[in-house]
Amino acid sequence: MGFERVCAAEDVPADEGLGVTVGDTDVVVARDGDEFHALQNLCSHAAVALSEGEVEDCQIECWLHGSRFDLRTGKPTGLPATEPVAVFAVDVRPDGVYVDTSSTLNGVHPS
């Protein structure tokens, strides 16, 4: 599939994720300062959208039970989640943010 444009850089809030769909994959785009990240938009604990949660200190928090995930690795950094979420490659270009969901950076496959 390759990289697909998902939004403009300014569309991604500094403190929360932005839910987008790439092909048939739901993705949350988040940023930590000037660095952009893309993860599976589904909490591995309760199967709810991570894009509804807050972003802080390079983590995204699930709004339902408070699980936190590292934006770089997808690994849970706070219970109750114990399984990681998929992380996808991001390319920020002058015309927007691009995400490639054809493979994951952490070996976790989206469910």
UniProtKB/TrEMBL annotation:
Annotated ranges, domain Rieske: 4-99
Pfam families listed in its UniProt record: Rieske
Superkingdom, taxonomy of origin: Bacteria
GO molecular function per UniProt: 2 iron, 2 sulfur cluster binding; metal ion binding; monooxygenase activity; oxidoreductase activity, acting on paired donors, with incorporation or reduction of molecular oxygen
InterPro entries xref list: Rieske_2Fe-2S, Rieske_2Fe-2S_sf
Record's keyword terms, sorted: 2Fe-2S, Iron, Iron-sulfur, Metal-binding
Keyword Plastid annotated: no
Gene3D superfamilies, sorted: Rieske [2Fe-2S] iron-sulphur domain
PROSITE patterns to which the protein is assigned, alphabetical: RIESKE (PS51296)
Protein name per Swiss-Prot or TrEMBL: Non-heme iron oxygenase ferredoxin subunit
Organism, as annotated: Nocardioides luti
